[in-house]
Amino acid sequence: MSFFDYGIVVLYLIGMIFVGLYFQKKASSGIDSYFLGKRTLPWWALGASGMSSNLDVSGTMINTAFVFALGASGFFIEIRGGVTLIMAFLMIFQGKWNRRAEVMTLAEWMHFRFGKGKQGDVARLVAAFSIIIVTIAMITYFAIGSGKFVGEFLGIPDYLGLSSQFWAATLMIVLAMIYTVASGLYGVVWTDVFQGLLIFGTIFYICAVAFFKFNLPEAFQVSVPLREGGFMALNTTREAWTSVIPHWSLNLPANSAYSIYNLFGIVILFYLIKVIIEGSGGTSQYMIQRFFASRSDRESGLLSLFWTFLLSFRWPFIAAIAIMGVVLGTQQGVIQDPEKVLPVVINEMVPFGLKGLLVAGLMAAAMSTFDSTVNAGAAYWVKDIYQTYLNPKATEKQLLRHSRWSSIIIVILGLGFMLLIKNINEIWGWITSSLGAGLLIPTMARWYWWRMNGYGFAAGTITGMTAAVLQRLFLPHIPEYYAFIIATSFSLIGMIIATYASQPTDIKVLSEFYKRTRPFGFWKPVRKEIIPETMKQINKENRRDILSTFFAVPWQVVLFLTGMTIILKRWDEMLWLSGILILLSIGLYFNWFRHLSSEVKVED
Questions:
Q1: What is the pLDDT of residues 377-405, one digit of tens each?
Q2: Which of 227, 229, 291, 389 lies deepest, with the highest CB count within 10 Å?
Q3: What pLDDT was estimated at residue 100?
Q4: Phi-psi category of 334—alpha, beta or left, where left has phi over 0 and alpha has psi -120 to 50?
């Protein structure tokens, strides 16, 4: 980059630190301010912050890698996590269900669901520790991607036996830590909003350049990574590469790291099943923190809708970068590492001056993911372990000090594990399909099955995550769907055995949970305790939410694909996708949007 480009990046970084420090005083009034912004943040800011946090550099690099290597069909692989399809479920019902608990963390929620007795304590502690582990893994994922991206521009040398990527990631993380540790969720949200403006400037510029200046040749080459290292060039055509209609099978070389996707139809069905389970159970970490911080049912719905709409612009951007990567390959030879297409394109095809703005925008995307993850993860140590069990009489000053130190320790651990992982897809696949899968079954069952108790949640989580770690140690190269089956099977068995080996949760606790949350599912013994008029309202809301979900899931997929077809100039596919999108939007409006309520009245 030129001196001017570096100047733009430095100004951006100084601006982020200034915004974060500006909100330090507000965040320092207590942990409710530090982790939830006192539930006073507007829905549009929470939604914009959520979008910025989802649009991370690591995810953008791996998503671009799949679209570059496989064409538009690569989109469907990232149904596993990169499409963030869980937003459809949060938008319709999971967001408001979680908000109604009025808690700070998912672990604290366990007391709401299982009571404050022994089983509630066990569930809360297991939830807290398991989410901290996932948070550390997410920091590792963030560090690898940001290290690859920033290292491409800053030219940091290897030092003390550690790679340039490690030092580049460390630089990014230290800078983001300054405002994250200082200002908590206030700083996270408002820096994310500011960073979102930079991100969208980046998106619109790249999309415009790709659309107006670059045309794909009729035939060209792409590249895929090999399992044992190195890369292989493959031939494809514009017609095949730009089509958003997925094939049932692919024909990638057996020694390719992407050959696990050759049974493409089965893989995508597996990802859809995984997402349905995950979406139905809700989420944790920074995503659910936005809903805990929202002010009403209506605002939780609005922030989800705004979040999803903003996130849809990510996929045209990814398609644009992939197109530019293909064209660059026709001029200089195919880009070998698909995961480096994003930084290589910006480095080679963006002029000086604008390059600094783009790098700053993508650094913003990286830092917004990091700050949200760290702030949410630290809450589990402070609220659910330190304050609840180690020092119940802790002062606000002590709690804030622990908030900041726990943030720093989580980051150091995440950086350490970065030294053990080779590439972004490796860590992302394990997080989404193995480690995270260990949480899926108990996380879902807690909403829909009255008999499940705190011991069942704890046992299911421990066995599932233990199976995921053992799979990583002894079977590291098995396909993701096998890793998912291993983790979820052990989790399900552990949950059922522990649930039936212990007493049910107290019926009074269950009744209070059900009246406030109003989930659908298997709640017959609890429903009998509720007056008929209230049950009539609950049943009406449940039916509407179930039907709306059938609109929302395909609506989100079609919304994202429609934007991609514009950049890919596939007008034939854009027309019929637009028609489907209009019909689904009408269904969502009449069945969901116009029924958004400000609050649910809880009957005694």
A1: 888 888 899 999 999 998 888 888 888 88
A2: 291
A3: 92
A4: beta
For CA atoms 399, 404, 408, 413, the dihedral sign is positive
Tokens representing 100 are: 């109604």
pLDDT tens digits, 331-361: 888 898 898 898 889 888 888 777 887 777 7
pLDDT digits (tens, 9 = 90+) for 149-205: 777 666 777 777 777 777 877 887 777 777 666 666 666 777 778 777 877 888 898
How far apart (Å, rounded) are the C-alpha atoms in residues 95 and 447?
13
Are 153 and 359 contacting, i.e. CB atoms less than 8 angstroms apart? yes
Contacts of 484 (CB under 8 A, 6+ apart): 270, 274, 433, 434, 437
Q: According to DSSP H, which parts of 155-230 are helical?
A: 164-213
| Angle, helix 164-213 to helix 532-568, in steps of 10 degrees | 70
Encoded tokens for 343: 């930084």
For residues 93, 290, 105 and 139, what is the CA-based torsion angle, rounded to 10 degrees? 120
Task: Convert 393-416 to b/e letters by CB count within 10 Å (16 or more is b).
Answer: ebeeeebbebbbebbeebbebbbe
Q: How many domains, in total, are found in the chain?
A: 1
350, two tokens: 């963006």
Mean pLDDT over the full length of the chain: 85
The pTM of this model reads 0.85
Tokens of 122: 């066990």
Could you give the CA distance from residue 82 to residue 56 in angstroms, rounded to a whole number?
10
Residues listed for the chain: 604
Parent domain of 381: 3-96+107-595
- Composition of the chain by helix, strand, coil, percent to 5: 75, 5, 20
Q: Which residues face 225 on adjacent strands? A: 231
Separation of alpha carbons 172 and 7, rounded Å: 16
Query: What is the SS3 assignment for 404?
Result: helix
Q: Which residue has the tokens 């970084």?
A: 13
Task: Say what angle helices 118-154 and 454-474 make with each other, to 10 degrees.
Answer: 40
Neighbours of 515 (CB within 10 A): 20
Helices and strands per DSSP (H, E), number in the chain: 27, 2
Whether 78 maps to a domain, the answer reads yes
**Dihedral sign (CA 361, 363, 364, 369):** positive
Higher pLDDT, 147 or 493: 493
If one compares 42 and 166, the residue with the highest pLDDT of the two is 42
146, 168 in Cβ contact below 8 A? yes
184: amino acid identity, one letter? G
Assigned domain for 189 exists: yes
CATH code for position 388: 1.20.1730.10
Task: Write phi, then psi, for 502 (nearest 5 degrees).
Answer: -135, 170
Is residue 603 domain-resident? no
* Domain presence at residue 101: no
Q: List the alpha helices (DSSP H) in 38-117.
A: 43-54, 57-70, 74-77, 86-89, 95-99, 106-114
Q: Cα–Cα distance between 461 and 454 in angstroms, integer?
A: 11
Strand partners, 231: 225
Task: Output the CA angle 270-273-274, nearest 5 degrees.
Answer: 85
Count CB neighbours of 16 within 10 A.
26
